[in-house]
User: Fold these one by one.
Assistant:
Number 1:
Amino acid sequence: MSSVDVAIVGATGVVGETILRVLEERRVPVGRVGRFASRARDGVEATTLDALAPYPVVFFASTEDASAEYAPSLVDRGAIVIDNSATFRMAEDVPLVIPEVNPGDVTRDHRLFPVANCTAIILCTALAPLRDAAGLRSVRVATYQAASGAGRAGLDELLAGERALVSGATEPPAAVFPRALARNVVPQIGSFDASGYTGEERKVREETRKMLGLPSLRVSATTVRVPVRTAHSEAVWFETERATSVEELAHACEGAPGVVFHRDGIVTPRDVEGTDLVHVARLHAEEDGATHHFMLWCVGDQLRKGAATNAVQILELLLERGYV
Ligand SMILES: NC(=O)c1ccc[n+]([C@@H]2O[C@H](COP(=O)([O-])OP(=O)(O)OC[C@H]3O[C@@H](n4cnc5c(N)ncnc54)[C@H](OP(=O)(O)O)[C@@H]3O)[C@@H](O)[C@H]2O)c1
């Protein structure tokens, strides 16, 4: 496989630096790697269309504004764009791909690949084998999302808050999050709309439907920020289309691509930090003898499987198929 030059816009951020690490770890055959950010400094260039133009593959891990400004022109010039922002995720004819779940959505003609919301990627990776085993009618999820999901600034605010509390402050800083996160949980990610859902909750609903190929699936989410540095956890209640059993569902999860299934015990964000798989545990019926209503717990590193690793896997898929 010949090597390909790649640019990373947002290389100084937490997702951008994880993309760099994952490209190296997975030995993706990349040639020149250009690092871009909002301004130039050591080894990092300022982002301009001219500076990005020579790269056949451009990862965006920056802001919606940057993706909206540069991605369409780059695609018009023939580049492949793999974009971690939400800008193009729900656009028609744009695939929203988890390589383990819906690789068939990618064709040779696609050039623009949004990477879905991190919570939705972890959720859909866990749900795909259950959909395949028994169909899905509804999904309800409560999330426990890490501070680094809000970027470097979110992680820094949690760490500053922890330090402030240790040194005796009563009210730690809160600027990135709506309330101080240290020793707290905050049930708001994104802004509220008229219906009472937040932006994050809407993304989970819409992107889950798109990735699972179930446009009328009932999905409702309550998304909550917790004082964890990295890795999102999700408590999931789901209803199947067909009557099934815990045993049949467990069998479907075992060996499902991208999933580590725990028949017994628990798994926590600390256990999965720095890893690429989605862990599923605590699969059980909602009530004794239930045939359609079940529950599970899933956890994944949102900087990796929820963002950088999924982005790199999309590039690997394109390279394998000869689409780059
Ligand atoms: N964090 C997560 O868990 C996660 C998960 C899934 C998706 N995402 C998405 O991934 C993207 C990056 O998030 P992040 O968490 O890595 O954020 P971050 O840590 O705040 O990093 C943001 C990066 O974007 C750069 N940037 C900002 N404005 C720019 C501009 N106008 N032009 C070029 N570069 C610009 C920053 O450069 P400077 O250093 O110069 O400011 C920095 O490198 C976002 O779209 C986010 O929604 C994040």
Number 2:
Amino acid sequence: MYFPDMGEQCQVGEGREVRAVGWLDIAHPYTPGTVEPAFVEALRRHVKTAWAPVVAAGPHFCQFCPETRGGGVGASGNVWIPSERYLFVAPELVVHYITAHGYRPPDAFIEAVLTCPPQGSPEYFARLTPFQHAFPWIDEWPPPR
Ligand SMILES: [Zn+2]
């Protein structure tokens, strides 16, 4: 499912401060470029340990891999990366898009990932609190672990 980078909506959230990143689709060109290995490592760590306020309906499959028709690279998770200004939301596949297809996400996202506290930590929720309204279904804040 395609959403433009830095758009205010994606499959699992929308709002004035929400910024979609990495919701790629074969029908739309994406920004190519290289990124620092440290960024990829940090992003991978966030994705692996992602705090998930939403359970996705099903996996996304990479449309850029030729083997997709036979059931290729797929993932169903998402990751929320709060910065001071925006709440970035990316699909788990974003790591694959970067490492396998040379996708370069927006600089603001790269910065946010590098400075984001560990997922689920008190510091993480402190940074997420200004965007609490993006999760109206969560009654208790910060959410119990
Ligand atoms: Zn792929």
